[in-house]
Amino acid sequence: MANKILVVLEQREGIIKRSGFEAASTASKLAKDLNTSADAVVVGDAISNINEISKYGLQKVIHLKNSELAYYSSSGYTEVITNLAKENSYDILILSNTALGKDLAPRLSIKLDAGCIVDCVKLNLSGSDLILTRPAYAGKALIDVKILSDKKVITLRPNVFKAQVDENSAAAELLVKEISGINLKSKVTSFKKSEGKIDVAEADIIVSGGRGMKGPENFHLIEELAESLGAAVGASRAVVDAGWRPHNEQVGQTGKTVSPTLYVACGISGAIQHLAGMSSSKYIVAVNKDKDAPIFSVADYGITGDLFEIIPALTNEIKKVKQS
Amino acid sequence: MKIVVCVSHVPDTASRIKVGSDGKTIDPAGVTYIINPYDEYAVEEALKTKEKLGTGEVVVVTLGSENSKETIRKALAMGVDSGVLLKDDKQRDSLGIAKALAEEIKAKDSQLVFMGKQSVDYDNSIVGQLTAELLNYNCVTVCVKLEISGEKITAEREIEGGREVVETSLPAVITCQKGLNEPRYASLKGIMAAKKKTIEEKSAASYTPTSEVVGMHLPAGKQPGRIVGSDSSAVPELVRLLKEEAKVI
């Protein structure tokens, strides 16, 4: 069978991430269109939710088990997945465009002699050609790309493709393969959790502050609003460069490109490089006293006024609504 | 130790992007080009590493057209010793770039390579890993902290929700993220000195593309929405809209 697909699932602390379910669903749909089948692989120690992934239209779910691979190892993961892909002649590998997926996909592509395209937001079959659409220039443009080689490695942007249980397919067969003698030339020895509760890269709701916050001492207003919404805290480049907020909160072209369900921009005027990083958010709210600020050109809802009055009121109102 | 730092010449992040007449690349008219912002962290880390060792040489390598020399000069002005321009006027895919860089790194016999974690034009973020695999070097991506002692490398890389501490060894490619260091400004003396430094020019190693851009378009523009009000009295209405119309809270 040609075009056999392998999904590489990512686990963290033994739990397959949500983006893995999105990739599984997308792969099983693509497999149907290509008249082939899709399997998935997960590397790590015990995986607690492996049974759940079997309902997403895959044929087999292969668990490559080794306690030394509980954490990511670029050399180790590359080796074991390459071996699996070669033994079973997979032609298309699909990963999620996470820190791990971005790191691993290009390495696998070299080992498998495959073309590699990352951060896809759309897959389209045009005849027998697979056309991949991905953002460039931080989302200021979209490009359509065709991989010319037979073997392909692609990554999917999280939060874009739907994860859907496939009611019409039988549950995937689960296979556990103990592996040993792994190449650990590079390995993760520990993980330092960041202080912020939710990472902007993975958040469903983001509340961001900009220069209009006037100083780092006022960001507690942003944090409180974020907490009321269960949101991550984001920041504009100006406030990160001024040292008010850590760089891992920066949204925009030299920070993170995000597409949450709701993005609340407070005191952010909307420089082009910021808009590029967040304008694909599903809903955007802007609070800014300058009614001509470019942020209002992408906002669904706006309040033009003093954010020091509006944000606390918004926090209270949301708490009230959530309690009722 | 010879340290190679790879940089790219990209449109300023403040640029507006228009699709060019070929329908596949941007229209360069009116676009200012700069050194890729993440590559500045790479140049700084290369210089810091050399300074710490007290010996060695830093070479900046770029692939591109004659115009890319501007970006090489920028790195030279920051303190890099010499530059190499791998000439190719055509747009290459990531693997094409990596092959040319790997060839040059091999020729320079460099065991330590720095580059930005991604360039802000195509945002691929894979050239470092591809280059490392081609050379059979280790590679740490999205690096925000780095310590090299002898052959041993201890690095921290940014991932969702925190940092991974990675242990590996030379030879290696390190891709740099904002937060790794504070890039130095080029001094006037540095800018003057850069004019006298050599830039070696050669044609980039040839390759067969593995992917092809078939089209470029601009995302559907968002329609401006509605201004709910101009003070906190608008807040209840805003929350109602978020709850009942957008259904996001």
What does this structure look like?
The complex is a heterodimer of chains A (324) and B (249). Chain A has 324 residues and is α/β, with parallel strands linked by helices. Chain A contains eight helices and 18 strands. Chain A has a seven-stranded parallel sheet, with helices on both faces. Chain A has a five-stranded parallel sheet with strand order 15-14-16-17-18. A three-stranded antiparallel sheet of chain A has the order 8-9-10, with no helix packed on it. In chain B, the strands form two sheets. Chain B has a nine-stranded mixed sheet, with helices on both faces. A two-stranded antiparallel ribbon of chain B has the order 2-3. At the A-B interface, helix 3, helix 4, strand 7, strand 9 and strand 10 of A face helix 4, strand 7, strand 8, strand 9 and strand 12 of B.
List SSEs of chain A in N-to-C order. Answer: EEEHEHEHEHEEEEEEEEHEHEHEEH
In what order do the strands lie side by side in the largest sheet of chain B? 9-8-7-10-6-1-4-5-11
Major sheet details of chain B: 9 strands, mixed
Share in β-strands of chain A: 25-35%
- The sequence of SSEs of chain B as H and E is EEEHEHEHEHEEEEHEEEH
Query: Oligomeric state of the chains?
Result: heterodimer
Number of separate strands of chain A: 18
Portion of residues in beta strands of chain B equals 25-35%
Q: Radius of gyration of chain B from the CA trace?
A: 21 Å
Structural class of chain A: alpha/beta
Envelope shape of chain A: elongated
Mean pLDDT over all positions of chain A? 96
Taking the alpha carbons of the first and last residues of chain A, their distance comes to 56 Å
- Our count of helices of chain A gives 8
Shape of chain B: globular
Which sheet architecture does the biggest sheet of chain A show? 7 strands, parallel
End-to-end C-alpha gap of chain B:
56 Å
Separate helix tally of chain B? 6
